[in-house]
């Protein structure tokens, strides 16, 4: 059906669905179809355990390895995060967050951490988009991201790791708050 509707072959459709399944975004039910995977708190908390370790590595590595131009970009991103916090602008925050994530994994110069972060950030972003209006503190989240960006811009590995831990603490708090917000 997708092949006919989109006007492309079955192979690219099958490969795309298999990739989405590997990324845990859909579940393939043999001979029955495909469904969008559940978004649940328990899975998100397990994801955050792994994300904390990898994201701390990315932040420390970016602080150590970023070029002068990348450090300048991190400083500009920190200012944009702070602007989104002051304006409580979720659209600006989401755009800056994407830039921050891309620059962080690029500056870290670790293709394995980049691959892991890509998957984890996609799943975390999906959870956040689904729940942020009911339980998130956007200004605080934006400021915590700005703190990481500033630490990386300053080449301060320990500050980048500590700021990352504060962000992940807040994301974990947010994740748990979605349970009480849904009740």
Short key terms for the protein model shown above:
mainly alpha; 4% strand; 183 residues
Folded structure, characterized:
The protein has 183 residues and is mainly alpha-helical. Helices cover 81% and strands 4% of the residues. It is built from eight helices and two strands, in the order H-H-E-E-H-H-H-H-H-H. It has a two-stranded antiparallel sheet.
Topology summary:
Layout: H1 2-6, H2 10-22, E1 26-29, E2 33-36, H3 41-65, H4 68-87, H5 90-108, H6 111-135, H7 138-153, H8 157-182
Antiparallel strand pairs: 1-2
Helix pairs in contact: 3-5, 3-6, 3-7, 3-8, 4-5, 4-7, 5-6, 5-7, 6-8, 7-8
Strand content: under 5%
Percent range of helical residues: over 70%
Distinct helical segment count: 8
Low-confidence runs: none
Give the rounded overall mean pLDDT.
91
Element pattern in H and E: HHEEHHHHHH
Total strand segments: 2
Structural category: mainly alpha
How far is the first residue's CA from the last residue's CA?
Answer: 38 Å
**Shape verdict:** globular
Main pleated sheet: 2 strands, antiparallel
**What is the C-alpha radius of gyration, as a whole number of Å?**
18 Å
**Largest beta sheet: what is the strand line-up?**
1-2
């Amino acid at each position: 059906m997708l092949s006919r509707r989109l006007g492309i072959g079955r192979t690219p459709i099958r490969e795309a669905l298999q990739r989405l399944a590997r990324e845990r975004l859909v579940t393939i039910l043999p001979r029955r179809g495909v469904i969008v995977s559940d978004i649940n708190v328990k899975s998100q908390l397990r994801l955050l355990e792994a994300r904390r370790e990898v994201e701390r590595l990315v932040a420390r590595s970016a602080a150590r390895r970023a070029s002068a131009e990348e450090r300048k970009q991190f400083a500009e991103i920190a200012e944009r995060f702070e602007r989104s916090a002051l304006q409580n602008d979720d659209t600006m925050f989401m755009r800056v967050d994407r830039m921050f994530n891309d620059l962080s994994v690029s500056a870290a110069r670790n293709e394995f951490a980049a691959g892991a972060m890509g998957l984890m950030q996609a799943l975390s972003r999906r959870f956040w988009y689904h729940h942020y209006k009911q339980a998130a503190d956007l200004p605080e989240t934006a400021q915590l991201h700005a703190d990481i960006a500033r630490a990386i811009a300053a080449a301060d590995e320990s500050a980048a790791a500590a700021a990352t831990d504060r962000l992940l603490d807040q994301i974990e708090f947010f994740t748990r708050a979605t349970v009480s917000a849904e009740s």
